[in-house]
Amino acid sequence: MENNWVKITNLHEININGTIRNIKTKRHIKPHINRGYLSVSLTIGTKKKIYSSVHRLLAVAFVKKENIYANEVDHIDRNTPNMKIRKIEFFLKYAWNILKILICGDLKKIISLLTTTH
């Protein structure tokens, strides 16, 4: 399964371990840490660069979305260096905010969120 590469851009691919490489040269792209998350800078075309977290690229390539509206990606175990796909999930940011408020117990914020239309 480690050798199963999925194309993520015209020039790059990712495997199930979160290793990203150039398709033509097979050279691995070294990730850096940005706000606690492993991230990469990928050159697209001649000069344009995109910056993305490795866990987001992994999720897009390998994790099935349970909800088509879930666009946020999170580490289930809160261990941000953990790149195992069974520990990464898509989630709804709106639902996550309500859950955080429920845990903190602020009923006024819950009512405000539920009555606000998006």
Using the 3D structure, state the CATH architecture. Alpha-Beta Complex
| Strand order of the biggest β-sheet | 1-2-3
Question: Number of helical segments?
Answer: 3
Low-confidence runs of at least 5 consecutive residues? none
How many runs of DSSP E, i.e. beta strands? 8
The gross shape turns out to be elongated
Please trace the helix and strand order, writing H or E for each element.
EEEEEEHEEHH
In words, what does this structure look like?
- There is one protein chain.
- The protein is α+β, with helices and mostly antiparallel strands.
- The chain has one domain (6-92): Homing Intron 3 (I-Ppo) Encoded Endonuclease, Chain A.
- It has three helices and eight strands; from the N terminus they run ββββββαββαα.
- It has helices at 54-62, 93-104, 107-115; strands spanning 6-7, 12-14, 20-22, 32-34, 37-44, 48-53, 72-75, 88-91.
- A three-stranded antiparallel sheet has the order 1-2-3, covered by helices on one side. It has a three-stranded antiparallel sheet with strand order 4-5-6. A two-stranded antiparallel sheet has the order 7-8.
- It starts with 5 loop residues before the first strand and ends with a helix.
- The mean pLDDT is 83.
